[in-house]
Amino acid sequence: MFYYLLKYVFLGPLLRLVFRPRIEGLEHVPASGPAIVAGNHLSFSDHFLMPAILKRRITFLAKAEYFTGPGVKGRLTAFFFRSAGQIPVDRSGREAGQAAIREGLGVLRKGELLGIYPEGTRSHDGRLYKGKVGVAVMALKAGVPVVPCAMIGTFEAQPPGRVVPRIRPVTIRFGEPLDFSRYAGMENEKAVLRAVTDEIVYAILTLSGQEYVDEYAAVVKERHAAEQRARERRFPRAPFV
User: Fold this and answer.
1) What is d(CA 215, CA 199) in angstroms, rounded to the nearest whole number?
2) pTM for this structure?
């Protein structure tokens, strides 16, 4: 119930006012039945903007940190994310990945839409990064189509670190569903999973026009953070006087 209040009364109209989204290819999203919508991830607002424009309810896998904050603020944040159709996922370790797949398959078994970001994390620089194979595992195990989606302009509207988004138009572009039935029963083949994932990411790339980086976003983020820490140790800031 609260999901639809957010969508049609509270959050949805506000997002449409701020971003004035242009929607392309919405007819590619199945009107019924299970499917995966796989998109790029450029902004915090992506979690809510896509659900606001889709006719069907969509459930996203979101990082667990959104649900575990302390105090009243943390509980309110967790309630908000759950109400907006988000499922918490611990992203650390192999077992965490298996838990995410189980959660996603549970959504698909109900005949619903599952939203996922193959990159595994938000892009820190607006580029598109190598996809993780979890999306391929779920697509093959559930035997469902994958609809590629590109968010265009949300990075400029709300880049990492910006709390209040800029008022500017964005585009949400959906591509034709990808059918992977030719790989049925091959969800344990690493080469197949990589091929399926790369095909999904390439479809997103074609829609978004982003620059592609053949590395995992989390690895690049950590490398940049380590380089920044090293620079700070070499050139410490002078104490404020």
Assistant:
1) 15
2) 0.87
